[in-house]
Amino acid sequence: MSLSMYQASIPVFVRMFGNLSAILDKAAAYADAKKIDPAVLLNARLAPDMHPLTRQVQIASDAVKGCAARLAGVEIPSYADTESSFAELQARIQKTVDFLKGFSPAQIDGSEGREVVLKFPGAEMKFTGQDYLQHFVLPNFYFHVTTAYAILRHNGLAIGKMDYLGGV
C-alpha cells in the first residue's frame, strides 16, 4: 500500500502541532513556576540572526496552511502575525489545526503532479505537488518546530525527545 499525499501531510502536521502545543503548555507553566516573564521565552532565539520563538511557531503555521491550501487548490487563509503570549500562540496552532482538519483526503490526494509556484521578491520557485511537500514544506516545517523546541530547551525547559515526538 502506498502513502498518499494526504497521509504524508495533514496527519503529520496535526500530530506535530499537538506535540508543539504540549511543549508550549510546559513552557508557560515553567515561566510561571520560575517567575520568568513569558516575553523572555517568547522572544528568545538561538542566535542573534535567527527568529524568536513566536516567529518560529508563526512560520510553521504558515508553511502547513499554505501547503494544504496549495495542494487542494484553495485560497490560503491569512493570519496576522500578532501573537505575543503563549495563549495567543496556542490559539494560532488551534486555528491552523482546525483549518488542516477541514480537508478531506480527496482534496489532497492526486496533487502529486499539481504545479505549485511560490513567488518571492525577485525569485520564483516551481515544484510538483509531491516535491513541494517532500522537499520544501516538510523540511521547513520540521526546521521551525525543532527550532521552537530548541529555543525552549536552551532556556532551561525540562523537555526531551519524547516531548518532541509525542506519544509513539
Automatic annotation (TrEMBL):
Can you say what this protein is called? DUF1993 family protein
The record ties this protein, via InterPro entries, to: DinB/YfiT-like (IPR034660), DUF1993 (IPR018531)
**UniProt-listed SUPFAM superfamilies:** DinB/YfiT-like putative metalloenzymes
Positions in coiled-coil regions = none
**UniProt xrefs under PANTHER family:** BLL2446 PROTEIN (PTHR36922), DUF1993 DOMAIN-CONTAINING PROTEIN (PTHR36922:SF1)
Pfam families, alphabetically?
A: DUF1993
Q: Gene3D superfamilies, per this entry?
A: dinb family like domain (1.20.120.450)
